Amino acid sequence: MCVSADDVAAYILKKCGAMTTMKLQKLVYYCQAWSLVWDEKPLFKDKIEAWAGGPVIKTLYNKHKGQFSVNKWPSGNIAKLNQEQKETIQGVIAYYGDKKAQWLSDLAHMEDPWKDARKKAGLKNGDRGCGIISTASMHEYYSGINDGEQ
Q1: Where are the domains of the chain?
Q2: How many CB atoms lie within 10 A of CB 21?
Q3: Predicted model pTM
């Protein structure tokens, strides 16, 4: 069954409760990253863009635009998630879930997938605009830092 970023967002909010939209974006991003490493496949097909503020899934952004925080995600269907996908999301929540939104954003800004997508798009820090963060770049980068701690 095809899973979307909406389904992942709904599951995260069900498990963690209300959070800022910025934190939700980063947690969904890290779910995709670690699914590529742990499960060797993408968790969802939605594109991830390298915005000035960090990785953003535009399909999610279009639904939370103008909101600072959210406590549920009505357009997601957690029943679509299989056990492996839930375990991946839970692993991400266990590691990143207690971090502040700004910490997660700062971390993503230091990592190659976001930096490389911005560079390929000809964007400097702070420039408005975006490049696409490829699943290949995410897999390569996060595989290299997968040391068993996550």
Answers
A1: 5-145
A2: 20
A3: 0.94
